[in-house]
Amino acid sequence: MTRDEALSVLGLKSDASRDQIAIAYRELVQMLHPDKYGDNKRLRARAEQQMRAINEARDVLLKGTRTSRRPSSATASAASPVAIAYEATARANAAETARLSVVADARTLRKRRRSMLTMAAIAAVVAFLFSRLRGGFGATIFSIGSMVAVWGVVDAALLSSQIDALQKRSRELLQARDAARKIAEEASKLG
To answer: Alpha-carbon Rg of the chain, whole angstroms?
Structure first.
C-alpha cells in the first residue's frame, strides 16, 4: 500500500500529522469494528477486511511520519476549544470515511442482488419451458432450473437483510459525522 492509498483509507490529507493519523485510525476502528455487525457473518467478514486495510494504512503512515501538527500543550490544553475542535474534526472525517466505505459495500450488494434476481427469473423461465418436455432431459433441466431459481431468490433475500444492515450503519455514521462537525464548529467559534 502506498502512502497516498493509506491516506485515502484513513480519509486524511497529504499533510496529516502523526496525531491526526492516530486519531483517524482510532475513530475508524471504533466505527467499523467487526463486532458492530454481530451475527451477520458476511458483514462481519467485510468489516474484518476493512480492518486489515485500516491497520495496514496506519502502519504505512506511521513508519515515516515524525512531526506533529497538533496544537502543542503550550498553545492548547486538552480541554481547550482548539483541541476540542481538532478532535471533533478528526472524528467527523473518520465517520465520513467509514460511511463512504459502508455505502460502497451496500452498492456492491445491491448490484449482486439485482444479478441474483435476474438469474432467478431466467432460471424460472427455463424451468417452465422445460417442464413441458417429457423424458429425462426435460425433467433434469426443469429440476436444475427450479433449484437455481429458488437459490437466486433466497440469496437475494439474504442480501436484502445485509443491505438493510449497511443502510442502518450508514445512517448512524452520518449522524456521528454531523454531530462531530457541529461540535467542531462550536468549538472553533469559542477558540
So the answer is: 24
pTM above 0.70, yes or no: no
Letter for the amino acid at 55?
A: N
pLDDT tens column, 173-190: 889 889 888 888 888 887
Work out the number of other CB atoms within 10 angstroms of the CB of residue 91: 23
Distance of CA 170 to the CA centre of its chain: 8
| DSSP structure class, residue 36 | G
Is there a contact between 8 and 89 (Cβ–Cβ < 8 Å)? Answer: no
Longest dimension (CA), the chain: 88
Tell me how far apart the alpha carbons of residues 169 and 65 are, in angstroms, rounded to a whole number. 32
Q: Is the dihedral of CA 38, 1, 56, 177 positive or negative?
A: negative
Sheet strands (E) in the chain: none
